[in-house]
Design goal:
By secondary structure, the protein is of the alpha/beta class. It has two domains: 5-118, Tetrapyrrole methylase, N-terminal domain (Cobalt-precorrin-4 Transmethylase, domain 1), CATH 3.40.1010; 121-243, Tetrapyrrole methylase, C-terminal domain (Methyltransferase, Cobalt-precorrin-4 Transmethylase, Domain 2), CATH 3.30.950.10. 30% of the residues lie in helices and 22% in strands. Helix 2 (67-80) packs across helix 3 (98-107). The longest helix is centred in the N-terminal third of the chain and has 14 residues, at 67-80.
């Protein structure tokens, strides 16, 4: 009997160099690649030229295919090909709906392997020298979605706003004002906030402010998804001048490899 494998591969935060060697090797050996909207298409250059490469874009406000349709595609391709790669932005297990695809594949008798990726929740702030933890400032961090499946504000936001932890919020730009109101109601109006749009890519934009004014600054800068929101005292460690010099250095060494 024909046996296929579904590989759930993390594509990293956007910079095509922020991907693991194992992920590159898996892409290169794939018969089929189903890739998301947040995946840098430069990664497809690693693929075998004859492989099937199909866009199944899913991000906030963009659902090219429903999750059920993607699940069905996985099964259909696995019936005719041996190695199907599901290429997902960041890490498959961080708000990537990977479990739904695993369940669908296993129910169809398809083997599943996960190739972890570099999550944008950590990599994007780090690329701007914003640590999520720093000795003497905080002891933990939260990573949470802005909204639930029903479109409501996650209750975890309300809990996170009461803590001293750094809070990283994904998929939340449409609820930014309401979320900042929640932090302000928990005596966090003066807490620093950074919003990084399309982090680690050439289109990156960053705005820094405080809970009480970040919504207006983000509006003025016309920030939109995909973006990472970082709330916490660690944002004070961000230094624009140093980051500018660092970016110039990275650009000048972009052909190092």
């Amino acid at each position: 009997m024909h046996k296929s494998t579904l590989f759930l591969v993390g594509a990293g935060p956007g910079d095509p160099e922020l991907i693991t060697l194992k992920a590159i090797r898996t892409i290169a050996a794939a018969d089929v690649i189903l890739y998301d909207a947040l995946v840098n298409e430069e990664l497809l250059t690693y693929a075998f030229p004859a492989s099937v490469k199909r866009f199944v874009g899913k991000k906030y406000g963009c659902h090219y295919l429903s999750q059920q349709e993607i699940n069905q595609l996985i099964i259909e391709y696995a019936r005719s090909h041996s190695r199907v790669v599901r290429l997902k932005g960041g890490d498959p297990f961080v708000f990537g709906r990977a479990q739904e695809e695993i369940d669908a594949a296993r129910s169809a008798g398809i083997f599943v392997e996960v190739i972890p990726g570099i999550t944008s929740a950590i990599a994007v702030p780090a690329s701007r020298m914003i640590p999520l933890t720093c000795r003497g400032i905080n002891e933990s961090f939260w990573v949470t979605t802005g909204t639930t499946q029903s479109g409501e504000i996650s209750n975890d936001i309300k809990l996170a706003a009461q803590s001293s932890a750094t809070v990283v919020i994904l998929m939340a730009m449409s609820k930014l004002e309401t979320i900042m109101d929640i932090f302000a109601a928990n005596n966090k109006a003066d807490t620093p906030v950074a919003i990084i749009q399309e982090g680690t890519t050439a289109n990156e934009k960053i705005v820094v402010g405080k809970v009480k004014d970040i919504f207006f600054k983000a509006q003025y800068a016309e920030l939109k998804n995909p973006a990472i929101i970082v709330v916490g005292e660690v944002v004070n460690l961000y230094t624009p001048e140093i980051n500018h010099v660092l970016q110039q250095h990275l650009n000048s060494n972009s052909n190092f490899f």
